[in-house]
Structure formats: C-alpha cells, structure tokens
Give the backbone structure.
Amino acid sequence: MIDKNNENCPRAQTAPTNKPVAVALQGGGIHGAFTCGILCGLLEDERLDITSVSGTSAGAMNAAALVQGLTQNGRAGAQAFLRRYWQEIAEVFGAFSPCKSLYKDKKAGDYNLDHSPSFLFAGMVQSFFSPYELNPLGINPFFEFLSDFFDFDALNQSDIDLHISTTDVEAGKIKVWTNGEISADVLLASSCLPCLSQAVKINDRFYWDGGFLANPAIFPLINNAHDAARKKSDAEERRKEQATVRDIIVIPLTRQTAKHLPTTNFEIQNRLTEITLNGCLVREMRAIHLITKLIDDGVIKQGSMQRCNIHIIKNDKTFEGLNSSSSCNMDEDFVAFLYEEGYKTAETWLKNHFSDLGTPKSVDCGEHSVFDDFV
C-alpha cells in the first residue's frame, strides 16, 4: 500500500515568492505510480505553483487527479487524490488481473511479467484476435471506474490548465482536449491501446492512446504561456510577461538510452517499444532546443516567441532491470515501490535543482544539459 504518512517525505517549505511551473506527464501504464510519487513530492514544496498540466495515457490520469485535487482541496487534497487513484487501481483492477509476477520472481524483487504464463498467453491471444472479436460489445470496466472516480465539473471549471492528448485514428493527428472538454471518454481515449480495447468514439470521431503522437504533449504548455502574454492589455505588463522564463517540468517514464545492444527477440521488441514511445518526445525536445537557441542567439526577436526552461525529473536506477512488461503489473507492492521511489526522486530534484527554476539556462548540449538525450 502507498504510505500516506511517510516521515521521509520532503517537508513543505515556504518562500516569499512562489515559482509557477507547468508539468508534462508521460504515459507508461502502472509505471505512472512513479509519477504520482514525484507529483506528491513536488506538492510538498510550497514554493512551487503548478499552473498548467499536460498528460498522456497514465500521465493523463495523473494530470486529472492532480488538477481535481488542487482545485477542490489544495495541495494536501491533490496528494491524497493522487494516492487514492493508484491505490484503487491496484486494489480494484490488480485483484482481478491474471497478469502477475510469479511468486519466486516477486520474492526476488522482479516485477517483470515475461515469466508469467497468463501474460504470455494474453499476448499470444492478442496477436490473433482484435478487441472487436474478443469483446464485440465493447464493455470496458475502466470507463465506469473513471466516471465514478473523477468530478468532471471540477476539472472543466478549474483555473489550472489541463491538456489531455489523444490520437485521432482516422485523421492520424493529435487531438488535445482541455478544460471544458474533459470527460470519462476523453481520459479513456487517452489510454486506449488498440490491441486491448476498441477505439473510443467522441463526437463521431474515434480515438486511441495519445502516446502514439504526443507522449507527452509539451507544445500546449508553451502556447498557453505565449497566449497569456498576448492577452495582457498593458504594453509594459505584456513585455514583462513575454520576457519571463516559462519553466516546464517533464516527467518521462520510458528510458531513452540502452546500455547494450538487444539481441534476443524479447530484447529487440522491448527496445523497439521504448524507442517508439519516446519518438514524439524526442522530436518535440529537438524543436524546443532549436527555437530556444535561436531566441538566445537573437535570430528570433525576444517576445515574438516564448522562451522556456525545460527540466527533466527521472530516475533511471528505479527502472533498472524492468522491461515494458512490468508496466502491466498491478501488484500493490510494486505500485507502492514505484510511488516511494518517485517521492524520493522529487526530494532529490528539489534539493539539487530548485534554484534552476526561473533562471534562463543555456541550451548548449554538454554536461548536465537536459537536451543531451534528445539532440
């Protein structure tokens, strides 16, 4: 179980001026519990104000829980609501999921499912039959769970910008839903894997998991900042707003680099999955790097585009030894492990990098550059 009263959690800190940040949350199945831990750790620090959130798939669930919690009950409410979401996922769906670690694997701390007969059998079935054949009525208990769990009036009326990414199946384009448009169908679509579930129909369009085109989408967070500056009525206030650095914290869940060449069929498939899931993030980060460098070099006039500081919060050590199959493991102990690791990661990041917020940083690649993995 997730410990709601962890004494090792980063303690709340206060400062005269808060720093506004936007957060972008990548998808990754049950690995999203790690993101939950990071968010709860960040919420402990009262010097941070989360003003915008973008999420895809599991990141969309964390984003919605974060926004609803903050809107209804502040920081403590957001922490409690985030923890509750992952606890209920593990308790409600994990209890009935046949895809679990073997006892000997779990005892050894191995939460991968590549030795699980039920997981391997499920994969074999999915390779022969589509969800339209296996589940012709399209029954999805996750939809009922989302409908009951979230307060969509609160999400749609929140002052915190919320962006949920989906993939339009027929158009092959990204569709980002924001406040005023969020529903159980939107959240379901953002996490709809076509090998597991039928496409989600919204307004006569069909949608799949947003991770195919945006994992996560960063551009809505940049656009919001630029639009806010343009809407300022006073010219001086608008100039100050445009000159302000926009801090965006990206929380990825899929490893970007590999330590060795994959040679077995399973290793190749696992690495291919990682590269595919990160492809959109790589392209977006490369675009941000280029535009920010052009702003810094004076090629693009300051104020015509919003300058951003990108921050990455990750912990590769947490996911050492874990492959993509572990993202389907809803074991309560695994969820608790990921949450605690995320919390500790947030504590370390705040200690080492809080001072980076609000300060323009060079985008030149080199030691400690957040762009090293992408450019």
